[in-house]
Amino acid sequence: MVMKTDMLRQWLFPSARLPSAAGKRTRPANTMPPMRVRLEPTLLPPGEAFTPTQPKPGRRQITGRQAELDRILQALREEHAHVVLYTERGRGKTSLANLVIETLRQGGVIVARHTCEAGSSFDSVIRGLMRDLPRSLLAVAANDPAEIGCEAALPAGDLRPRDVVALMSRLTCRSLVCVIDEFDRIEDPGTRTRLADTIKQLSDQAVALLFMVVGVSENLEQILGQHPSIQRNLVALHLPLLTDNEIATALEKGAREAGFSLFPSIVERVVGLARGAPHMAQLLGLRLVQAASRRGDAQVAEADFDAAVDQLLAEASPSAMALYASLLAGESAAKMVRALRALAGAAQDPWGRIAILPSFRDGMAVGESYIRADEWHRLLDAQVLRPAAGAYGLYMFADRGFLHLVLLIDAQMTPLATPAQDFASAGLHRLASDH
Ligand SMILES: Nc1ncnc2c1ncn2[C@@H]1O[C@H](COP(=O)(O)OP(=O)(O)O)[C@@H](O)[C@H]1O
Ligand SMILES: [Mg+2]
Predict the structure, then answer these.
(1) Secondary structure (3-state) at 60
(2) pLDDT confidence tier of residue 220, bands split at 50, 70 and 90
(3) Which atom of ligand 1 sits closest to the CA of residue 53?
(4) Separation of 214 CA from ligand 1 center, angstroms?
(5) Which one of 36, 112, 123, 414 is CB 3.0 to 4.6 Å from 132, fit for a cystine?
């Protein structure tokens, strides 16, 4: 049976109104059909596609972080809980905070933000937050013309937690989210206690003002201090590293935006060097496309990877280089190189912690590798590694930059463009090519 198109549509969508012939829109005979314009994507300069020195400003630039965004929004919107977002430096806290703020504002939520400095105090943070709000939100008159934004909602003199609790009655918005970034930088211990007291009072009195506190820390106590009574009033999120897939996506996205393409082998090497650190993916991505662009090629080649590694090592921190050299001084340099390599490449948990356990051979076991007691103690003494807070058998690189240095040196020893069989022969190759 052959059904007519109109009959078929009516049968599938009975409630849909079929256009009657009379209602059909026809184009006046003397007009041109609409032109289809194919928009070519505009390319970004490499330094905008890859941003190693800046946080990502919002959703379009960020890779991953959906689960973390959802959790934070759920805490703020549904649970009316304050949020603490913490992790190591350079892992994407500010970028995620930008994404949270963008999403909240798009949903009509009023957000104030303030970035702390070493000398910040409770007073300067709260005043900074109020200055970030438009004056139109003031429910009280601002008498002092010098006052910026909603500063007039605050009393003069030293602020106390109860002044923050009273704030909402002086603003016209029904709810407010206050984002405080780099909270860990504040040196004054009193500020931490006052903020914790404020969170407690706001929660107890169900005031619609929520804080999102962002900072470098390994755990909640380090950032907000010991304040057990506020733990149930807040959601603490320990931001993980990106996954390897996300690192690859971030790298490919940046390259595409700058008009470059990457071989899978190069993406794989970058993923291995980044070990989940978004900052490293941005930095390597930038150096790769800069190297390709110097050659006038839009295809990043293996020689560009080697050039990027060389440049990162040439720009590495002198103190990290000196530490590396001091660890290798002595007779067992090869063993130390092996130990460092095993640690830098070891399986890690989502926060970059490595399981290291005593070995039955009187040293330490890292995955399949073995570190002799001598090297292990030297590494601990030199503070290359430290135990992760509150987790038996888990260790972290005290400075993650050092982990990347080890991997970069390793990559320089085994260049992509001139493959070498192993570390020893690569070393010989380099020595030979130096002469
Ligand atoms: N989700 C992400 N996707 C891609 N790049 C990211 C992401 N998060 C952070 N970055 C990059 O990583 C680096 C550190 O990010 P940032 O947000 O400043 O970290 P933090 O605030 O933890 O120090 C920056 O170069 C930033 O561009
Ligand atoms: Mg930051």
Answers:
(1) helix
(2) confident
(3) 25
(4) 13
(5) 112
**Which CATH fold would you assign to the domain 244-314?**
Helicase, Ruva Protein; domain 3 (1.10.8)
Asked whether 65 lines ligand 1 (CB < 6 A), one says: yes
The architecture (CATH level 2) of 330-434 comes to Orthogonal Bundle (1.10)
Confidence (pLDDT) at 39: 55
| Contact call for residues 408 and 273 (beta carbons, < 8 A) | yes
Q: Which residue has the tokens 């409630």?
A: 15
Domain 65-238 classification at class level: alpha beta
Q: Is the CB of 279 under 6 A from ligand 1?
A: yes
126: helix, strand or coil = helix
pTM of the model: 0.85
Residue 404 contacts residue 323 (beta carbons within 8 Å): no
Among candidates 86, 88, 111, 97, which has minimal Cα distance to 62? 97
- Quick check: CB of 51 below 6 Å from ligand 1? yes
Question: Which ligand 1 atom is nearest residue 277's CA?
Answer: 12
Q: pLDDT (tens digit, 9 = 90+) per residue, 270-320? A: 999 999 999 999 999 999 999 999 999 999 999 999 999 999 999 999 999
Q: What is the pLDDT of residue 392?
A: 84
From-to residues of CATH 1.10.8 in the chain: 244-314
Ligand located closest to 86 CA: 1
Beta strand residue intervals within 117-246, DSSP E: 176-181, 209-216, 234-238
Helix axes 189-204, 122-131, angle to 10 degrees: 60
Q: Where in the chain is the domain with CATH 1.10.10?
A: 330-434
DSSP 298: S
